Amino acid sequence: MNLSDLVLSIADNKQMLGLRYAEWATRAPSLEADIAAAAMGLDDLGHSRVLYGCLEPLGSDPRGPERESDPASLRALAYFDEPWTEWGQFVAANAILDTAFTVMIEACVAGSVEVLQHRLRKMLMEERYHFLHGRSWLRSGIDAKPLDRAWQEATEWFGPAEGETELLHREGRLSMGPAELRARLEEQLETKAPHVSVDWKTWDPVRRRGRPGAIDLPTFAMLRGLEEKKYAPTTAAKQAAPPA
Amino acid sequence: MSGYKRVSGDAVEYEVFARKTRGEPLHQVGSVVAPDDDLAMAYARATYDEERWCEMAIVRKEHVIELWQPGEP
């Protein structure tokens, strides 16, 4: 794994986080929370675009043709595989996973790679409001189940203590390795992570997750533009339409 | 769907102020309802960020000291 793989992982995760946020834009507990869900969704979709745009300047773009046909080729966490059914899942993702991605972006911005230093800095300002939103809702109290799962997946996503992420840290390209990233996440959230047991032997270093699976097919079709095509006029209808 | 109510009984009203340039005064652009300052900041930014404000601030409505109200001399 190189830095491009990590950046693609952040991008794919932010894309899915943005989509899952947006699904709650009419279902959150208050009108303000609806609007915040929509705004945070737009932010994260925008961030994913910026991150995808960093791949070429980094010198290698790991995206292959399989991304058009295989939903398991996308590098998002299992937490985003299915739409969330409970507000607690939203809050746990907002507080823990969104902040975990932000902490990794901090490590990129404070690292030695110029394109990441410059292009990702603005994200940190926008993410401040995601963090305030997530932390405040977290304090209001949610079920332990989505919280534990989010901590588990964040820990897996940071990677093993002596893995490639730590190597990027030692090379100076990231300012933090897995241990520092996790400590920073705990510091930000003012809480200790629950005990997390990760089987690194079955962990997927490309997708940075332990669980198999993939995003749901309707979401995958939507990402590929197939849902949009259903509503596009047919060629015959286009030819029959009068010129604009 | 979650068991959370869509309207919190603990919610507080905040007034939102903003300005586009340093030369103009802050003016009220709206309000948000939230249970604490952190969430109010997040909501204000999400709700009123469509313009390019150079400054935005919120204040609890209960902290505004009114000198008089409509209809009063």
Structure description:
Chain A has 244 residues and is mainly alpha-helical. Chain A has eleven helices and no strands. Chain A has one domain: Ferritin, core subunit, four-helix bundle (Ferritin, Up-down Bundle). The radius of gyration of chain A is 19 Å and the shape is globular. The model of chain A has no long low-confidence stretch (mean pLDDT 92). Chain B has 73 residues and is α+β, with helices and mostly antiparallel strands. Chain B has one domain: Ubiquitin-like (UB roll), CATH 3.10.20. Chain B has a three-stranded antiparallel beta sheet, with helices on one face.
Short description:
The complex is a heterodimer of chains A (244) and B (73). Chain A is an all-alpha fold. Chain A is built from eleven helices and no strands.
Features of the shown structure:
heterodimer, A: 244 residues, mainly alpha, Ferritin, 0% strand, B: alpha+beta, Ubiquitin-like (UB roll), 3-stranded antiparallel β-sheet, flat
Oligomer: heterodimer
CATH 4th-level superfamily of chain A: Ferritin, core subunit, four-helix bundle
Tertiary shape of chain B: flat
Dominant shape of chain A: globular
Q: Summarize model confidence as the mean pLDDT of chain A.
A: 92
The largest β sheet of chain A comes out as: none
Give the termini separation of chain B.
51 Å
Unreliable stretches of chain B (pLDDT < 50, length at least 5) are 1-7
Q: For the largest beta sheet of chain B, what order do the strands appear in spatially?
A: 2-1-3
Q: Would you identify the CATH architecture of chain B?
A: Roll
Tally of discrete structural domains of chain B: 1
Largest interface: A-B, 25 and 22 residues
Helix content of chain B: 10-25%
Look at the structure and give the CATH class of chain B.
Alpha Beta
The SSE order of chain B reads EEHE
What fraction of the residues of chain B are assigned to beta strands by DSSP?
25-35%
Continuous helix count of chain B: 1
What is the CATH-assigned architecture of chain A? Answer: Up-down Bundle
In CATH, the topology of chain A is named Ferritin
